[in-house]
């Protein structure tokens, strides 16, 4: 037997105090303090939300770019139609009727349309009396002039 076997031992308190004060009360556990794993999960959720927001913004920007590119193409094609119509002699009111995606296609269509768009401007064009004949209102004189014109004389 050793000499310390019968010595009563003092109750020992757990060593919860980190400041080295043996008489200090242990700190109560704080359940509201985030744990390391919870902090990581919270940060991961934040990053995923930011990623989703960024993806949505990218999709919006892509849609805006596509719309702007389409509008630019329409404006360029409209300007090209105007230039081709002016060069071929199509009235401005008919430029929107030109079809084609290239200058050559538009010009070919403009030439076809120009045949139908230009009406004869002088004379009657279909025969009959011309009200601009000066002083010739009697039928015999007018008939003689028309025969002369028809016979090429």
Keywords:
single chain, 153 residues, mainly alpha, 3 helices, rod-shaped, coiled coil, Scaffolding protein
Task: Describe the protein.
Keywords: Coiled coil. This is Scaffolding protein. The protein has 153 residues and is mostly helical. It has a domain of 82 residues. It contains three helices and no strands. Helix 1 packs across helix 2. The protein starts with 35 loop residues before the first helix and ends with a helix. 5% of the residues are buried.
- Provide the gyration radius in Å: 49 Å
Q: In percent terms, what proportion of residues is strand?
A: under 5%
Shape by Cα distribution: rod-shaped
Class from helix and strand fractions: mainly alpha
Concise synopsis of the structure shown:
The protein is mainly α.
Helices and strands, with pairings:
Layout: H1 36-88, H2 103-117, H3 139-150
Helix pairs in contact: 1-2
